[in-house]
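Operator note (shift B, R.M.): manual run for Ribonuclease requested after the automated queue skipped it. Running by hand, logging everything below so the morning shift can see what happened. Input copied straight from the record, untouched. If output looks odd, do not overwrite the archive copy; leave it for review.
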Amino acid sequence: MLAIRIPHRKAVALATAAVLAGLAAPAVTATPATATETATTAATSYDPAYYDDAAGKTGTALKSALNTIISDQTKLSYSAVWEALKVTDQDPNNSNNVILLYSGISRSKSLNGGDVGDWNREHVWAKSHGDFGTSIGPGTDLHHLRPEDVQVNSIRSNKDFDNGGSSFTNSGGSLTDSNSFEPRDAVKGDVARMILYMAVRYEGTDGWPDLEPNDSVTNGTNPYHGRLSVLKQWHQEDPPSAFEQNRNEVIYASYQHNRNPFIDHPEWVEAIW
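Run finished. Output pasted below as returned.
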């Protein structure tokens, strides 16, 4: 059992200060309509002892150890996710806006809702893959929830991830076809690490389905998400950016008090899969 799970009050304050400093830096270069993540390294503030129980492990042993570590978290309601996303995904160049995941658009925080022109809460691990919906648990886990344009969210729907497809309105470079979705290049690694986080966090031991990646794009309502081989490629090609690292810090310090281990240790993807 780890000695440190949820950070002490002083550690949270230090972590939050570090995060805010990082968010104030130009981690994202914005145009008037869109923003692109950079690959610069952001400072982290968590105690390295957080991962002590994973040291030296590989394969299923590593996956099990990480599950134990990151399952110690504070859970949010689905309504609380609205306000959290306004902080975790804030545009570093405009504190009034959030960055939309697939589109790359910087949009006003106040335009959250369900109408055309609004942004809403995108489940990167499609909530129908395992049928967990928006219930507290995987349905409200900030590590895979991101702001996205309402219409783009609908276009992505519950498709698995893969290469290929056609562009669409507000795509930002993302593509889609009849059975898959390809995010824009700047967030392909982000998507991969969010999917793999979910596969480690939800192992079927806490009342939720055992979520696993596979190499299919026809998973439907099964608790699987693909395509693993492509996600691993995206993870390698798009390493964690400063924006993604800062987001991990905010979730850890201010909301869930757990981390996405594949942002902190990208090498663990290959060690498990």
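Quick read of the result: Residues 101 and 172 are 9 Å apart (CA to CA). Residues 9-272 form one domain.
Leaving this for review. - R.M.
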